[in-house]
Every structure is written in structure tokens, then in C-alpha cells.
Amino acid sequence: MISPENAIHKIVEFTPTMPREEMALQRALGRILAEDVMSQIDMPPFDQSAMDGYAVQNISSNAFEIIGEHKAGDKPTYELRENEAIRIFTGAIVPDSASAVVKQEDVKRSNHVINVNGKPIVSGANIRLKGEQIKKGNIAAKEGTPLQAGAVGYLSTLGVTEVVVSKQPTVTIITTGNELVASGNELKPGQIYESNSIMLSAALFREGLKPNIVIIEDDRNITRQVLKDAIEESDAVLITGGISVGDYDFVYDALQALQVEDIFYKVAQKPGKPLYVGKRNQTMIFGLPGNPAAALTCYYLYVTPSLRKMQRHQSPELVRAYAKIDEDYHKRGGLRNHLKGQLKGEFVTILPKQSSAMLGDFTDANCIAILPGEDKLWKRNELVEVILLPY
Description:
Number of helices: 6
Number of strands: 28
Largest sheet: 6 strands, mixed
Distance between the termini: 31 Å
């Protein structure tokens, strides 16, 4: 068995990157930059007032005559002389002759004269200097940056209209099991509602991906044909169930028959020990456990880094942190545990229902707590490592 750390390392190592494509910035929300974006302008493009107030020339004075007004969008027309000021508004060009902008709250105005209310004027106060945020030719956003709303807005302020992003991978989810029926149907004895494809689709939607879904019975020939088609048509294939060694688990044999290269099979962890990862040509194949909580845990830990690496994400793995365990917890010896947890402030609660078949506690979980393999009583306030879930 491979360790979880080595498993993630191998997945990132073997995962290929997607081709690049150019698209309109306004359509690129959620996409990952495939090359650096350079600023074509200084930002701000001119010395800019940061406040509503008065631009003044002589900072040693406290009385000024108002000779005009600048609002945002006006062309500069005033040249200030000593003891002169102009009324100025946020975002307006500051005249080259101005030494500072005095906030309107700090002055008393009488007709065309202002008096500063005792506070000394600091040179450069309340002026956003040309190029203060970024200078022309500098990198505005690096390759691998996810284009969230703030990034899209920032690039838009620099006049960017097109960006080069990684193409999104095509993903197929294959769920196996004779016992599975779709929600909304009446359950017959021995049947359960199929949830893995819905669950994994929801997780993929959050990454901006829309998977294809195939649900099949436990049949050797059907399994092989469906896998063959999915591998040929997809950049990533997620299979839930059928990867173990039962009499009706046909996935591994089908993968071998299709000459899929094994990257690893089985990880020293609980849940999700029988995790399989392989590759054929440029397609990554993940054999996830059939139990839904185990499948989702493995998705976050192992599938997410692969899909993000495909798209050149700067940080393929989910964010890790440390938190204090909020009550004593006895971890028995054996495999490393990845436990559903709820992080509140500096404390993490290990949720009570950790069975690999039980999804219920994922409704409250916002992290996965990592407890090493040894037998240990974790005492309240001890630090444990947690993986933050992406919501």
C-alpha cells in the first residue's frame, strides 16, 4: 500500500495539463489562467484623489483660496499657486502642482476660502500615485490563478478583454451496482437509491465542470465496454464501486484488459483503502470506493488535485491548516484516518458518524481531520491537521 502523501505526489506527477484556449474575460469566471497576464497600463493611470476634499499646493499653510473644482473624469485644467486649492472628488486627477489632498472633514469652508482644522498637512496625503497598484509591463495575474470575481474585476480595470485559460477537462462518472436505483422510484427489497453520481456531480459543478454520468449493472462485458468508451472520450474517469475483489467487482479486471497503466492500487488510509488510480494515454482513471462517504473523501483528497493540475491551478491540493481538537478522542492503531470534521474558529469537532457508508455528517462537515496511524488518545486542545473543504 502507498501512503496518502505519496499517492497525492504520484497523482500530480502523472496528471497531464490541458491545452490552452483564449476567451473573453467576462466569460472566464471560474477558469484557470494558462499564462501570465501583463498590465498594459499604469494603475492608477494618473495621480488620483483618494478622498473628497481639497487639493492644495503649500502644505505649510492652513488657509487656502478655492480657485476651481475637479470631479472624476475631468481633464486637468488648473495650475495651483501658493495658498491656492481646488475642490476635488474621489477618483479625480490631482494636478501636478498639488502637494496633498486635504479631506473635506478636516477643513472649514467659508465662501471661497478653506481653513484646515489644526491638523498638519502631510505631503502626498490622500493621493493615489500613478502606477501605485501596478505599473505597465508588470505581471497582473500569474499562470495558475483561478479567475474569481475579484480577479476578473481587477483585470477589467486594466483594460483586459481576453485571457488565455486552460481548457476544462471532460469528466465521466461511472457508477456500478445491481442494487442501485434512481431517486423517485420505489425501493424493492435489496435496493438502495443511487447517490454517488449526484454527489460527485455536485462536487464537480463547484469546480466548474459538468460531467457525463453512466450507471451500469455489475456485468463484466458491459463494464469493459463502458470503461473503454469513457476512457477514449474523457480526460478523467471516476468510477465508484466495483474496484475491490468481490465476485461481482469487475472494474479492476476491465482496466487491466484495457491496458490501463497502474499508478497505484490501495492507500494506507481509512476510509478509502481500496482506491485505484491509473492512466491510459492522457486520461486519468480513478477507481473510488462504492461507499459514498469514502468516495467523497477520496474525491477531495485525490481527484481534486488531479483536476486542478490539469488546469494549471497554482495550488492543486486543498488548503491545509491546524486546529485544536475540542474534546478527547481515542484513535486506535492501524491506518491513517481521514475524519469528517467541523471547524469553528480555532477548534475542530470530530463528527460522530464516521462510517464510510454514512454521508449524513457531511452535511455539517467543513473539513477533514487527519489522524496518523498510531494508537493515541488525542487530548482536548491538541493540534491536529485539517484539510479545508472547498465550501
